[in-house]
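Could someone model beta-D-mannopyranose with this protein?
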Amino acid sequence: MLIKRYPGNPILQKDDVPYPVATVHNAGMVKHDNKYIMIFRSHKFNGRSILGKAVSYDGFNFVVDKHPFMIPSKEQPFKKYEAYGIEDPRIVKIDGEYLITYSAYSQYGVRIGLAKTKDFDHIQRVALITEADYRNVVIFPEKFNNLYARLDRPHSEISPWSIWISYSPDLIHWGQSQLIMRPMQYHWDEMKIGPGASPIKTSRGWLNIYHGVFPTMDGCVYRLGVALHKLEDPSVVIAVGDEWILQPEEEYEITGYVHNVVFTCGAIPEPDGTLKLYWGGADKVMCVGTAVIDELVDHCLSNLRQAL
Ligand code: BMA
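Reply:
Sure, complex below.
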């Protein structure tokens, strides 16, 4: 068992939120000032999403802020592209600031918004950093040859939905895009894959915890897997673990708003070499589990499949 579920799961659900929401799921995570910050997604009762904030001293017990953390913007150009809601945030710390990427939904498709904060009290939107239709953007916590790097997942009618990398000098203009990892046919991730948690630096490479989707007669099953990217050049995928590391098994993952879903937007590496992995269960509740980072890296390297 690579991921040990916390026995107190789910750790956060709608009744813990002091304003009306239908779900608490798909949260970005980061440690700030020795506190665990969770920026989670909630469906409102009209089916559109907003982001909330919860804080914890141990990574397991969270208290939710009285008011939402981010709602769709009232200012252009964001207003136009966030009208249907904001979803699935990822957080990364770079150059002393926290960057938050999120899906911006509107009648024009799904784009990715970028916001930044230093303290999780004041937040500033920076730019919309993709065209439609993209999801699952995670930014690396370091630059490569002075460029920011990100993994993302464009939609495509032709190719299965795959993981790409792009670079930027200023976080606004992105390019040098390359496809670096594809779903594998007749495999647990055969339908589509997407970056999950922001990449985690290890001595053997960047650990990328991603989601993979398998279509069944009973709908899609969302599971999590791991890949390893080269430290100096993250466009090189050194290894992809052949088997998933987490699949929906508990009642709170099998039944909910969308059944059979474990979906991650964040994980926190600890100084003792363990990892706290956070995931949304069935698009309805937040869950946590612990893992040993070295074991996840071994999992990538010991029984690997092709990246492309
Ligand atoms: C994906 C995204 C996620 C969601 C998942 C399962 O396409 O919309 O936000 O958790 O589907 O419903």
